[in-house]
Amino acid sequence: MAAAFGKLFYRQLTVKAPDSFPQVPGKTYIITGANSGLGLEAARTLSRLNAAKLILGVRTISKGEEAKQSILASTKRDASTIEVWPLDLNSYSSVIEFAQRCETLDRIDGVLENAGVDLKKFEKSADSGDELTIKTNVLSTVLLGILLLPKLRDVSLRYGIVPILSMVSSQVHAMVKFPEAKDPNIFDTLNDEKKTKMSERYFLSKLVLMFAFREMSDKMTASGKKGKVIFNNVAPGLCYSGLHRNNPDIEAGPQALMMKTIARSTVDGSAFVLPALFVGEDGHGKYINDGKAEEPSSYVRSKCGQEAQKKVWKEIMQKLEAVSPGVERLI
Ligand SMILES: NC(=O)c1ccc[n+]([C@@H]2O[C@H](COP(=O)([O-])OP(=O)(O)OC[C@H]3O[C@@H](n4cnc5c(N)ncnc54)[C@H](OP(=O)(O)O)[C@@H]3O)[C@@H](O)[C@H]2O)c1
């Protein structure tokens, strides 16, 4: 774990953000959590690269409209190239409605599942009773990804392209232990306030997301369905964004100096996210960190990690099948 921190510090100070990407005329991208931070800057870059259509998935429409105006002001593109659609990952029905609306798009070239939270207060989602960090960063993110697969495969077959689905993860997946993996039901423990350390919850959510990502990408490879889709996950490094709004230490406490010294801007952070949308077919199943594919933590790859991964996946599927029957068969 100390090694993971050391690596983070070193790389934050030495790795330069990618600064050029191919033009994307005619292409359509969906970006969740696109009203602020890395999502907003990724959308701005795709607009600058001449994307034909951008769908900004946001939970507050007025914030999404502001983001759209901010992008248009900097790129001078036509307003019709950007649409703001409601998406609240706290609500499964919102996720399902968003996915259904995506089916009306003619094509989708890339989906950046970027929306995420780092909550410090334990709170449960109204519809499913799951702790909100886990619901947002993992359960709804996975549900949306799976629900979009049939459309992405259809686009692949109709246009002869390989659309990309990418989930934004984090190096912090390597900086937390997962004793919950040994409990009879992992998510019951994660939803028990008495057993929860909220200071670690964000890190844990990204570890659980890493497990879900790896299992899902293997299942996509094995399913052999027609229509190719590349599925990857991408870590942007530590960035100074709205993510830390619930963490007072970031502004004034012991973490403030670290943030000032090593955190990237949201523009640079987005430049570390975008490579995920420009990989070839060999980028399927890959974890992209600081712009390059690399292995996730040794725990994730260990025998214990693999057992935890299977258990996490089984429980996620039990939960998602209850809200969207047949969802696992879509993979
Ligand atoms: N910043 C970092 O150091 C860092 C490092 C590694 C990974 N990441 C990941 O990068 C991604 C983007 O984070 P960021 O740093 O850009 O933070 P941010 O500025 O807080 O952006 C997060 C975005 O997610 C949206 N969001 C949160 N909850 C949502 C929900 N229930 N439904 C729909 N949208 C929701 C937020 O919308 P609202 O404005 O409405 O809240 C916001 O647009 C996250 O997945 C984060 O975990 C960040």
UniProtKB/TrEMBL annotation:
Domain of life: Eukaryota
Keywords for this protein: Oxidoreductase
Family annotation (Pfam families): adh_short (PF00106)
GO molecular function, one term: oxidoreductase activity
Name the UniProt record assigns to this protein: NAD(P)-binding protein
